[in-house]
Amino acid sequence: MKRISALSISVLAIASAFCALASLSSCVREKGQGQLDTIAIRSGSVELVVELARTPEEQQTGLMHRTALADGRGMLFVYESDRRMAFWMKNTLIPLSIAFIGSDGVIREIRDMEPRSEATIEATRYARYALEVPQGWFSRAGLGVGDRFVFPPGFPGP
Question: What DSSP letter does each residue of the chain carry, written as one string?
């Protein structure tokens, strides 16, 4: 009889631990999102590894609550077609630069954004992608309006 009780207590303890971890995981998701799928994109000899924000939920959360983003890393917001875009920095803790990029991969506009700002940054031209990187990365990489990113074969895919 004692063995069954000890086994029951062990199972209950393990189940409680899993519940606590699941609860913690959902809190982390509410505060920010973990790393998303990544791809490497190129412009000339410059390579950038980007997380893909494809769903409305991923796009809404973006880089919120992150405390760092390394040079050479970014987040690419992927839309179905070219459109007018607007972004803000609510709950985003790091300074970013954003490039609005057309379906052809060409950078149409680059803007700097300040942490925690609720001011709207609107693209003045239509774009299919928005690329967020650490503030100043485009100039450090020697990239500007008119430069073209090359995406992996089959991108954006389903």
Answer: -HHHHHHHHHHHHHHHHHHHHHHHHHHHHHH------EEEEEETTEEEEEEEE-SHHHHHHTTTT-----TTEEEEEEEEEEE--EE--TT--S-EEEEEE-TTSBEEEEEEE-TT----EE-SS-EEEEEEEETTHHHHHT--TT-B-BPPTT-S--
Question: Which residue in the block uniquely carries the two structure tokens 């990489």?
Answer: 141
pLDDT band at 34 (very low <50, low <70, confident <90, very high): confident
Alpha carbon of 135 to those of 56, 57, 65, 80, 141: distances in Å? Answer: 24, 24, 16, 26, 11
pLDDT for the residue 157: 56
42, burial (CB in 10 Å: exposed 0-12, middle 13-18, buried 19+)? middle
The fold of the 38-141 domain, in CATH, is Jelly Rolls (2.60.120)
The larger pLDDT score, comparing residue 19 to residue 140, is at 140
Write out pLDDT tens, residues 43-61: 999 999 999 999 999 999 9
